[in-house]
Design brief:
This is 2-C-methyl-D-erythritol 4-phosphate cytidylyltransferase. The protein has 225 residues and is α/β, with parallel strands linked by helices. The chain is 31% helix and 20% strand. It contains eight helices and ten strands. Strands 1, 2, 3, 4, 5, 8, 9 and 10 form an eight-stranded mixed sheet that branches. Strands 6-7 form a two-stranded antiparallel sheet. Helix 4 crosses helix 6. The two termini are 28 Å apart.
Amino acid sequence: MTVTAILPVPVRFARRRDAVFAAVAGTSPLDRAVRALEVAGDVVIAVAGPLADQVGEALAGQPFSRVRVVVSEPPGERVHCVAAGLTVVADASHVVVHDIEWPTAGTGVVDRIAAALREGAVAVMPSRPVTDSVKSVDPDGALTATLDRSQLRTVQYPRGFAADVLTQLVGLHRSGPFDELEAALSAGVPVSLIDGDAEALSVELPRDTDYLAALITTRQDLPTP
């Protein structure tokens, strides 16, 4: 059984290239994501056409022996990138899909996803319990209740799938916004939750550059150049 990782770089980042290529704490989000994913196996960077040349330049000279780059069909939204990645991983039975806006996912999460897939799960999501107080409101914005947060979870990236299941989900959503979790739930695919990373978070660069740099310096389990 093989596990291959797909890192989509969709066209929306053509307007925010720093979110992919600018160094934070010495390493770009692209580089950091690839290093985290390499623990699972081969990595396919599936990139929208307008960003392809810059991705190639960023990888030049890097010691990535198990990384391939594939260019998606236009317009290059996330779903097109994932579809392009799947076309070149036909020999993989399981796939890990990442999001470049989650640059602090530790390698331990990738290991746990791969292990769950090997044990028979078809869709695997790292999750964390909700610790903040969550309220419900009525249509006018008035507070109505405090929700039981013991039944709530946040879901993180990366995420794992049986390759044939992800292929089916992509086939149902060939345009517009694509979220693997929502697609799986809509299709009735059973989703297994594993322990996530307490310090993994989604960031928006360059806005969060200083905060992300400070967080990275405190982590001991992130891959380094």
